[in-house]
């Protein structure tokens, strides 16, 4: 584990540089698909870490602004940055 000094900052900068390099080499279609996949994945796991279960289909629908008819799901899906704060059913 790196020390909390400049080592961590150096590692973060290295990750940033490598991701920028990789992003620049991806075909536009591949990049768009990867962004959409990671948005869905990040939302799912972010909610799971917070103790909320949101089905991936509900997250995908919310990203497309196709909100569910049920008020609790709609409330969760319409929160900022598509970060779903849904209680476990």
Q: How would you describe this structure to a colleague?
A:
The protein contains four helices and no strands. The protein is mainly alpha-helical and 89 residues long. The protein has a domain at 28-89. Helix 2 (28-49) packs across helix 3 (56-63). The model is unreliable at 80-89 (pLDDT under 50).
SS summary, helix count = 4
Give the overall average pLDDT.
75
The helix-strand sequence is: HHHH
- The proportion of strand residues reads under 5%
Structural class: mainly alpha
Approximate helicity band: 55-70%
Shape: flat
Based on CA atoms alone, the radius of gyration comes out at 17 Å
Q: How many angstroms does the end-to-end distance come to?
A: 38 Å
Number of strands: 0
Low-confidence stretches: 80-89
Biggest sheet layout: none
How do the helices and strands line up, and which of them pair or pack?
Layout: H1 6-25, H2 28-49, H3 56-63, H4 71-77
Compose a concise summary of this entry.
The protein has 89 residues and is mostly helical. It has helices at 6-25, 28-49, 56-63, 71-77.
Q: Any key phrases for this structure?
A:
single chain; 89 residues; mainly alpha; 0% strand
